[in-house]
Every structure is written in structure tokens, then in C-alpha cells.
Amino acid sequence: MTSPLQKKIKIHGPSVVTANRTSDGVVIWRTADHGWSTDLDDAAIVRDGETARALLTEATADDVGAVGPYIAPVTIADNGTVLPGNLREQIRNTGVTIELPAQV
Amino acid sequence: MYAYDEIDRAIVSERVDEFRDQVRRRLSGELTEDEFKSLRLMNGVYLQLHAYMFRVAIPYGTLSSAQLRKLAHVARTYDRGYGHFTTRQNIQFNWIALKDLPDALADLAEVGIHAMQTSGNCTRNVTADQWAGVVPGEIEDARVWAEILRQHTALHPEFSFLPRKFKFAITASDHDRAAIKIHDVGLRLRKNDAGETGFEVLVGGGLGRSPFIGKTIKPFVRGRDILSYVEAILRVYNQYGRRDNIYKARIKILVHELGIDKFAAEVEEEWKQIAEGPLTLDDEMIEDIRARFIYPDYAKLSDSPEELTKAKADPAFAMWLDNSAAPHKQPGYAIVTLSLKPVGGPPGDATAEQMDAIADLADKYSFGEIRVGHEQNLALPHVAKRDLPALWAALDKIGVATPNINHVSDIIACPGLDYCSLANARSIPIAQELSRRFADPATGRLIGRLHINISGCINACGHHHVGHIGILGVEKNDQEVYQITIGGRADEEAKLGELIGPAVPYDQVADVIEDIVEAYLALRERPEELFVDTVKRLGVEPFKERVYATR
């Protein structure tokens, strides 16, 4: 099977690299200073295929810290806030869209 | 209840130690995710959108009160205070940290619970009629055979790396509550003309991307031969099942492509090699397993106790009784279903507090036993009828006495896009909205039996193909849209539903379902004609017309 890193990477607008933290599965984003953050606002934004590949490559290299990194679309609001680019990523960012049973 | 022996306990305990070491090596970097993934999956650990998900097996849907309390403990200690009962007699915890999983498994092992056979391409948790052993008219307790199969298939080296996952379901009743026709192998207990116990064996059922109803491969296999026969099926599947294409790897595809006659001939040929061999069960083995099921010491009680007659004067109690209590084989007792489908609640979820309270009620009223059904509800299988009024009051207090069993708001739903990494669309909010629309129990009664099943992707964990009304969430142009089928069913007359037309957006689903139900009420010949029978009589056209005429 071809690794995602060996495929040509096409992105259609601003994107980030996201994964789940190995120790507890929490959603994380790759930052510009080669680390991870649990805050989407801290994510490194990439805008072309080559930069996206580079960010994904370094994220994938951190196999101990993160599971399953991939490129996800984002949009940038007028005030600069980074927003998830689709519903799946929105739910990963802000959590389930329902009230948790224990809170009812 | 089944009593585990030392071998069972040793296997479970060794598995915990192995997994603790595997987790340690993963967290230290000794194991890569690629190396670790199959190991965690063998212990029921998935990675979902927000966190790890831990799936725990409840073989043939039977739990003791001590086991349910331990599940509550895991929910409270390592998760966010609740668990989700699935359509395959498992429970899932949605927020558990990898570092905590060995401790959670160790705690569960104390009461004989584990996560083996809940993931991976192995034979999965063997499921059974949740009323097995207590329902009138069954051939015998199907769980005895489910346990025989469980013991044989658990960690079976030949069947731990099959082309794809493999699911068994068993029933011993005419009315199929175990959905055997949508399993890889479905077993229906029968007696032959000589009075011997055996099985009608069905094969090749399943939902997902390519749904099929199981076909009878052999109308009668004697009980003593059942292990060798299913072993022959598994061997043929293991040999010919496709490993090159995950979408074509299930046995249903093999059966479909070969045809049931050719597949049956292959199985017969394989069976010839192993029938009458070491897998033949002798009476002593069967009785040994049967003897490990401990049945309650029922009292001789009136079938119409005064307490019950008096309590029926309360219409709320009478409605619940009519809906949620079912006949028991023992006079004076009833089987009580606990609804995990409160109005506006996520289907199948129970909080740790509810689980603890249900465990206490099981001790007080049901000989310490609880059952889990594939419809994502629980049951107390041995309740004295005289205790029903007191039990109802206690269940109502903890929110599990909604009188909607088998009604329109008793919805099966997968976790959907709120939790699941495979999902394309949300399931739970759709179910919640529908349960609010149909909240009035009188409406549920008026409509009668109606199963709505919702899946958030084509993998069909919510069994949408066999819902009387099936709802499948898909993603189109970054939007959630929902395909709607009607006329499906999962029982002894199992059938796949038929699509009524183009998918509808998220915010129109509840309106569409209301339209379908209103059309049914107008079209049914008499109140006793169930929704699914009206669809069978008239086809989908009148419903389609009603839904799309104004949209």
C-alpha cells in the first residue's frame, strides 16, 4: 500500500495537520514550532502541497506522541481565527454536538 | 448466570497482563502505532474522533449485578460517567485514556468481563436472544450453545486472522429477537422428528455496504455436530474468502458469489473430513456447560397477584406494564425491559448511577441478573409479578421506565459522527429529535410496533437496512443528508428496506419521518396492521408520494 506521504498532496485552501495524542486520544494539531497543541488556534497553517507534505512528514515522524496524522481543511475568519473546514473537523475541535448523558 | 471456571479466569487474567505490557511498550515508544494497532484492537480498543473507545463484550447479553456495577465503576473511574450499549451486546466507553486501559481491563477481569472478540478479523462476541432461558416456548436456553461456541471460538488460532470479522447469533424461539438472519452465521435451535435438539444453520447474512439476508445452508444439524459444522463453514470461508478487497471480504460476499448451493457443497465436503472427529460434542460436555448456568430458585407465586391487580388502576403503571413486561416461562414472574431510550436521550446510553441502581434493583427483584438486547435496551429477566409496581416506581425514578419498547421512539442508533471516526453524518441528534416528536406514549401506542434504525455511515452499526424505517446518514458536498428506507425488518421474516427516494437534509429528517408515519396511519386497514405490514401490502409508492409531493 502506498503511504500518504508518497502520494501527491493536493490541498484546496488553508490546511492544518491534525492527529490524536497517543496517551489519551485527545485531538491535537501540529504547530509551527514542531510540537503539538490542543488548540486549533496554535496550528501551523499550510497553503500549498509541498508545505503540507513537509508538515505531515514531521508529524508522522512523531509516532510516540501522535496517532494517525492527516491534513485537514480550515478556513480563516476575517479576524484571523482558524476555523475547522468541515463538520467532522468541527466536531473534533469543539466536541460532540449533544449533551453528554452524565450531564443531563 | 454462567459461572466461570479457573481456566476462564486464567485466560482473562493473562490477557490483562499481556495488554498492560503492550501499552507500556507503546507509550515508551518500543512499539510503533502500526505494531500496536492490531494488539489494541484485539482488546477492544479503537481510536475514535476525540479519544480511544473501549468496547467490552457481554457474551449472549447476560450480566450479573456485580458485573454491571463494575461497568459503572469503569464509566465513573476511567471515563465520563456513562457507557453506550451497542447493537451487538457490547458496551462502549467513549473517553478512556490509553494509559488507563490496563487498569480498566484488570478491574473488569475481577468479575469475569473482558474485551476479547470485540474487534479484529476474528469470531466476534456470540450474541443470543436476550430473553433466552426465560421466555415461554423456546426449544431450550440458547445461551448454553452460545457459551459452547464462545469457548470454542475465543482465541481459536485458526480463526483469529480471518479475511474479515465473523459474527454468530443464536435464538431458540420462533420469534427472532437476536436478528440471526443478518449475521455471518445464524443458528436457530430446532427439534427434529426424533426429538433431538439441533440447529437450522443460516449463513451469509450481514448489513454494511453490501447487505444480504442469511440463507439456510442446512435445515438441521444435530447439536452434537454443531461445532464441527460451523468449523467447516469457517474453514471454507478462511480458504476462499477474499483478502484482497476489504469490501468483498465478508462471508456474505463469498456465499453470494458462489451461490448458496455451491457454498453448501464446499462446506459439506469439508465437514466430511472432520465430522465425527474430536469436535463432536458428547452429552457429558454439553451437560457440563449447561450445569454452569445457574438458574434462580423460583418461588411458587400467583400469576395474578393482588398487588398487580390493584396497581393497574394507575393508568401510567398500566401503560408501562402493557408495554414493558413480557410473559415468563415461570408462572408468577415476568421479563421486564428497561428502556434506554428516554425522550431526548441518546439511544443505548446509561450513566454509572443508572447502572448501579439497576444492579441494585436486579439484586432486589431479579435474582441479580440483567440482560442486554441488540435493540440497545436492558432487561430484568426474573421479576415476580407482585413486585412489578414497586419495580416500576424505582425504574421510573432513574429514568428507565419510558413505556416505549418496540414503539416509534425505541430507536436503534449508532454513535454516528458525534463519536465515530468512520461516520459521515450524525445519528444521535436525529434519534433525539424523533424521540421528542413522538414523545407522547399514547402516540406510540396508537402507531404500534415500529422500529426506526439509524446509521451514520454505510457500515450500518445502527442496522438501518432492517429498520421498519431505516435512516442512513451520508455526506454530500460537505453536508449531512439522509437516505430513508422503509419495509425492512430484522426478525424471522427479515427483509431489507426499500429506498423511498432522494436523500433529505439533516433538518428535514424528522419532518419526513412524521409524514411517513402519518401516511401509515391513514393507509393502514385496521389498527392491528403494523407499519411494516402496510408497507408490504402497498409498497413504497404511497409513502414516497406523501414525502416528496411537497418537497
CATH homologous superfamily heading of the largest domain in chain B: Sulfite Reductase Hemoprotein, domain 1
CATH class descriptor of the largest domain in chain B? Alpha Beta
The largest sheet of chain A, given as strand count, sense and whether it forms a barrel, is: 5 strands, antiparallel
- Looking across the biggest beta sheet of chain A, what order are the strands in? 3-2-1-4-5
User: What portion of residues of chain A belong to β-strands?
Assistant: 25-35%
Point out poorly predicted stretches of chain A: none
What gap, in angstroms, lies between the N and C termini of chain B? 53 Å
* Helix residue percentage of chain B: 25-40%
Annotation field: number of helices of chain A: 2
Radius of gyration from the alpha-carbon trace of chain A, in angstroms: 14 Å
Helical segment tally of chain B? Answer: 18
Average pLDDT taken over every residue of chain A: 93
Task: Categorize the overall geometry of chain A.
Answer: globular
The tally of structural domains of chain B comes to: 4
How many strands appear in the DSSP assignment of chain A?
5
Quick one: overall form of chain B?
globular
Q: Count the E strands of chain B.
A: 21
State the largest interface: A-B, 24 and 34 residues
